């Protein structure tokens, strides 16, 4: 069976758009309804939702917990700015490099079992990073980034499959959990290290605890689809499609700015005169604000004829917040941190929304998600690395403003293409 998605030139009229989106979200569930009725775990949706939230909460602490302690870790281990930049780059690079493994592993073992296994590898990565010196620091960062990259591809599909009629709301809850995990880790890692006697290793290692808890609560989900056959589809033409490339570029470029913030914003703020605790709290507060815009931005964006205006608005807010944190007077930093949070919560949630809106069916959406995250996160890793290199060359933070501007303008240009109300032009065939 071969089907061809509408051409990218086939636009969606405003009167059809919401109906088409609902069809897309429900289509992914059509073949699984009978399974949901027969498995007791699926009769407890709140238990499944709680498990999803716990897993999502663990997809950012390994990234955002390092930033407030980066100066202390670098001084303790004698890392240069270039090595520190590599340390912030490696996990993001692994998000992209290992994302394509997710659908392969899911077809072989099932999504639920893969999530459980990868939660355990994430735990091992955090342990390595916090307990075995410089080698463990880099090896653990690689393992943590790889684990997060695989789980991050699988969770949206589980959300759409098991919450068909509430897929939009559940995706918002999932995105909020991501932001909350990042915010809590950014704000509490330094105080935790002080509580444990000033040990940065224990401050970083603490995040083993929520990962283990998530694995324990997720374990019952691994039995719900044992032995179930799932039809496989091959989608052709994504990498040749201009719209798919624009969606991927937008995902990667906005993610690059996000991971610059996760990896370097506290160091920038410390360089400007804040204490590590103050810098971590400002990053945490900025990420907490993302909870608001991550829910409202997609809702507002789908009320217009396309998403270009929404993308432009959130990108301008992001750039304003970045430049404010870099150059504004110290007594205004919290204002610009809030602006930054409003912008970045919207840019990330819109990137996820575009994957759904630009896909004609769930099979195309799954493959576009893998492409956008795999290629996009690999591209995103260049931003944090560039910040480290530029700081090492210049000895100050002022010059990184050029990096913000170049990435931000490129993201706006990609977003103007990705935000058009079109479908990607691909073929989908059952295999």
UniProtKB/TrEMBL annotation:
Record key words, sorted: Membrane, Transmembrane, Transmembrane helix
One GO CC term on file: membrane
Residues passing through the membrane, by range: 46-64, 84-102, 114-132, 138-159, 171-192, 198-219, 247-269, 281-302, 309-329, 335-357, 364-387, 399-423
Entries under SUPFAM superfamilies matching the protein: MFS general substrate transporter
InterPro entries per UniProt: CynX-like, MFS, MFS_Cyanate_Porter, MFS_trans_sf
A GO MF term: transmembrane transporter activity
Keyword Cell inner membrane in record: no
NCBIfam families reported for this sequence: CynX
Name this polypeptide is given: MFS transporter, CP family, cyanate transporter
The species this protein was found in: Pseudomonas abietaniphila
Lineage: Bacteria, Pseudomonadati, Pseudomonadota, Gammaproteobacteria, Pseudomonadales
């Amino acid at each position: 069976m071969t089907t061809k998605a509408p051409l990218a030139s086939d636009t969606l009229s405003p009167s059809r758009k919401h109906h088409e989106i609902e069809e897309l979200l429900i289509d992914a569930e059509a073949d699984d309804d009978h399974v949901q009725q027969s498995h007791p775990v699926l009769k407890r949706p709140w238990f499944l939702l709680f498990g999803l939230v716990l897993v999502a909460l663990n997809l950012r602490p390994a990234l955002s917990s390092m930033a407030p302690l980066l100066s202390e870790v670098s001084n303790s281990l004698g890392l240069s700015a270039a090595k520190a930049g590599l340390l912030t780059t490696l996990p993001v690079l692994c998000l992209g490099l290992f994302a394509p493994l997710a659908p392969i592993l899911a077809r072989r073992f099932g999504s639920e079992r893969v999530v459980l296994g990868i939660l355990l590898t994430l735990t091992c990565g955090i342990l390595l990073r916090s307990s075995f010196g410089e080698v463990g620091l880099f090896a653990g960062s690689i393992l943590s980034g790889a684990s997060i990259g695989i789980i991050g591809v699988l969770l949206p599909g589980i959300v759409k499959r098991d919450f068909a009629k509430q897929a939009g709301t559940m995706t918002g809850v999932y995105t909020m959990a991501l932001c909350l995990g990042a915010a809590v880790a950014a704000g509490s890692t330094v105080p935790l290290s002080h509580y444990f006697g000033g040990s940065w290793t224990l401050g970083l290692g603490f995040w083993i605890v929520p990962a283990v808890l998530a694995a324990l609560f997720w374990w019952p989900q691994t039995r719900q689809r044992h032995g179930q056959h799932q039809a496989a589809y091959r989608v052709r033409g994504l990498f040749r499609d201009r719209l798919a490339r624009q969606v991927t570029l937008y995902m990667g470029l906005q993610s690059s700015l996000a991971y610059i913030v996760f990896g370097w914003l506290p160091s920038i703020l410390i360089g400007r005169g804040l204490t590590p605790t103050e810098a971590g709290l400002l990053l945490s507060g900025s990420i907490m604000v993302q909870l608001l815009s991550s829910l409202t931005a997609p809702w507002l964006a789908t009320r217009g004829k396309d998403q270009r205006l929404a993308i432009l608005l959130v990108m301008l807010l992001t750039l304003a917040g970045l430049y404010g944190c870099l150059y504004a007077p110290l007594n205004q930093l919290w204002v610009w941190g809030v602006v930054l949070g409003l912008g970045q919560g919207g840019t990330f949630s819109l990137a996820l929304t575009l994957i759904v809106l630009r896909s004609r069916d769930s099979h195309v959406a799954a493959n576009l998600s893998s492409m956008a995250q795999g290629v996009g996160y690999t591209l995103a890793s260049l931003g944090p690395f560039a910040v480290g290199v530029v700081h090492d060359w210049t000895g100050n933070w002022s010059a990184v403003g050029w990096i913000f501007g170049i990435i931000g303008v490129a993201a706006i240009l990609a977003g103007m293409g990705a935000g058009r109300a079109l479908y990607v032009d691909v073929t989908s065939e059952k295999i």
